[in-house]
Structure formats: C-alpha cells, structure tokens
Specification:
Elements lengths: L2 E4 L6 E4 L6 E2 L2 H6 L27 E8 L2 E6 L4 E5 H5 L24 E3 H4 L2 H14 L1 E5 L7 H9 L2 E2 L7 E3 L15 E4 L11 E9 L6 E5 H11 L1 H9 L2 E6 L4 E6 L2 E3 L5 E4 L6 E2 L5 H18 L5 E4 L6 E5 L3 E5 L9 E8 L2 H14 L1
Parallel strand pairs: 7-8
Antiparallel strand pairs: 1-2, 2-3, 4-5, 5-6, 8-20, 9-22, 10-22, 11-21, 12-20, 12-22, 13-19, 13-21, 14-15, 14-18, 16-17
Length: 368
C-alpha cells in the first residue's frame, strides 16, 4: 500500500510505493494544492490565486508531520498549509477514478441491472442504481408511469436533458415518411446513436409506454466487452479501427450533421473511451485500396461480433420499463415488428454523460 513520508533531509514529501524507489513530490505541485482559506475558496473549492504566479523555483523549507497522514508544510515564499496524505495519493495516475470501474459483460453474463422508479427517487436507491449503471453501462428502471413525458422526469433525476433536432424528447414508433429508420418497423442492428454529432449524446433513455406488437424485442451489446475481445483475438484489426477516420452524416429537410471519428476511440494510454458505430451512417474516406481492404476486413469482423448471440442481450421492454444506457459504450437495436398488430410506442431523450457521475458523487457525499 503506498504511503506518504518526508524525505530524509526534510526538504520534500515523497511517495513510497510497494516496488521501486520513493518518488519525490514537486514542491510547486504541493503549493498549487494548498487548501488554506487564503488560497482556496471554502464554498466552491476553487483557487483564489493563479498558480502560474508562483515562482517556479519554490522550495519546501519546513515539514511537520502531525500524524501518519497529515502534514504541515511551509514553502520558500512564506506560505504554509496543511496537506492530507490520503488526498495526495488519490492523485496518483494509477489510483483510478472515484466511480465504480466498468465490468465488461457478454450475453451469458449480462446482469439484470434492474431497479424501480420509486427507489430511484430516494438517495440510497439512486446511489445503488448509479453504482450498477457505472459497472454495466446500463440499468432497467421499472414502474415508470406509462404516461407521455415521463422519460423527461427520469432524465432530470439523473442529469440534464439535451435538446437536438429531434426535440427535447422523441417518439419511437412506426410513422409514414420517417426521417430516421428508428421510426419504422424495420429491424435495427446494434448501433450507437447520433455519431454524426459533436459531442455525441452521452446517455440515452428509452421509456416503453406500450408494447403489444409481435416482435420488436430490444437488444443491448456491451461495446467494451466486444472491443476487448477483438483486441485479444485480432490486434491488427483492432488497431485499424482505432486509427481510421470514419465520416458519419445525417441529413433531412432541415438538418445536415457531419462528424468524423474512429469506430473505436481510445485515450492516450490505450484505454477504451467509446465506440462509434452505425452502419447506416458510416462512410470511410477514399484511402488507398490496400488500406481499405484491411479496414473492411476489420469492420466486418467487428460487425459479426456485435451481432453475435455471444454478446447480444435480447429482451422485451415491457410497459412502464425504461432503459438508461451509456451511448458511448453500449450499442442498442431491436428486432423487426409487425406494425399492423398491436402498438409499440417508446419515448426517448438524451442526457450528458457526466450527469450520473456527478449525481453519484454528490449522493455518496450526502449519505456519508
């Protein structure tokens, strides 16, 4: 377990790790994190000074260790402040986020991830639901009133609904002269929504008002699990999908949206960030034939995996059920249905990706 201690000469704090030498902490790094009331606003926790105004040659002149995890430090500019070893360790690059880490799932491992709307209106019930959401990328919320507009009530509980050209809320049902294939009775392969936007909507909510038709089963696929498998089984194809830019385009009478992204997005450390996949909308640039051959092979492999029964969870979204899912991680779709038999009517909305994460932190702080 890493811990913080003063250096032997008392001029620095250092991090002691399980393996390897102790790592000294830059004095300016500590000076910037002063929690002294003259340096940090108590209410907002925002700095009251510009750290670039502090001399780059700032040194530590005194360290007093009050306990195993508490230190009083004085700097060469005369400033003194208390520091917590726990808070310092929390900023190590490999300590991770304060959110539950994602757990990839296949069809056989797909969690029920179910809660209910009355529970989500309590702090404890909402924290439990958000915990599951961060683990699995989705939750199914039952007992949501089957009335128009209820999806926005749920959206506002978890974040801030985002208006698009489809409106603040949209109806998913078969209509004549649809401006999107979602508004037909056709089957939809696994896809992410709105990859043609910048930024892509982070989270989608779909609320079932009624579902009495034949067919129309909902599907969910964990893009994290699929891309992990692809990385393991075909690293060369995986690499192609993380580096080839793909253009996504949406057009109707009043809208034309275009954005470019790789099908699989990674951060600078190679960690999964998002999957951007909608085979009805993706167009690869005019690249050399040999480059396109490799890309097409990689995309075909990814597509087969996404549609595989090994990864796809298929279920009927019942009346009053709502699924909330990470549109950057999960792909959703549906089987085709007979629009002449019964009725299938969902309502949806989008909220930004950071809403549930913020709420999770706030509720945990409130609950202690």
């Amino acid at each position: 377990m890493p811990y913080i201690r003063p250096s032997q000469d008392g001029t620095a704090l250092e991090v002691v790790l399980a393996n390897g030498p102790a790592l000294p902490i830059h004095p300016l790094w500590l000076r910037e994190r002063s929690a002294d009331p003259a340096s940090l606003d108590v209410q907002t926790e925002q700095r009251l000074f510009n750290p670039s105004d502090v001399a780059v040659d700032t040194r530590i002149t005194r360290i007093e260790q009050r306990s195993a995890e508490e230190f009083d430090i004085t700097f060469s500019d005369g400033h003194s402040s208390a520091f917590s070893g726990v808070k310092i360790l929390a900023e190590l690059p490999d300590m991770g986020d304060d959110l539950p880490p994602p757990v990839a799932w296949s069809a056989a491992q797909a969690p029920p991830a179910a809660t209910n709307w009355p529970a989500c209106q309590t702090d404890a019930g909402c924290v439990a639901a958000l915990h599951d959401y961060h683990l699995h990328g989705y939750i199914i919320i039952e007992q949501v009133p089957s009335r128009p507009g209820a999806v926005l009530e749920v959206g506002r509980r978890f974040g801030f609904p985002r208006e698009t050209n489809f409106g603040m809320m949209f109806d998913v049902r078969s209509i004549p002269q649809a401006n999107d294939l979602a508004y037909t009775s056709l089957p939809l392969d696994p896809h992410t929504d709105n990859p043609y936007r910048g930024p892509v909507p982070g989270i989608q909510l779909l609320h079932c008002l009624t579902n009495s038709t034949q067919g129309g089963l909902s599907t969910l696929v964990d893009g994290l699990a699929v891309t992990n498998a692809l990385r393991t089984e075909a690293q060369d194809l995986f690499a192609v999908l993380t580096t080839t830019p793909v253009r996504f385009r949406y057009i109707d009478a009043d809208t034309e949206l275009v954005s470019t992204a790789p099908l699989i997005e990674l951060d600078r450390t190679g960690k999964f960030v998002a999957i951007h996949y909608s085979p009805r909308l993706d167009f690869v640039p005019l690249l050399p034939p040999e480059t396109l051959e490799t890309f097409y092979a990689a995309r075909r492999t990814l597509d087969r995996m996404l549609k595989s029964s090994a990864f796809e969870r298929r279920f009927k979204l019942e009346d009053g059920h709502l699924m909330l899912f990470d549109n950057r991680r999960l792909l959703h779709g549906r089987t085709g249905f007979d629009a002449s038999v019964g009725t299938r009517h969902l309502q949806g909305c989008y909220i930004d990706a950071d809403g549930p994460s913020s709420l999770y932190r706030v509720l945990r702080r409130r609950l202690g």
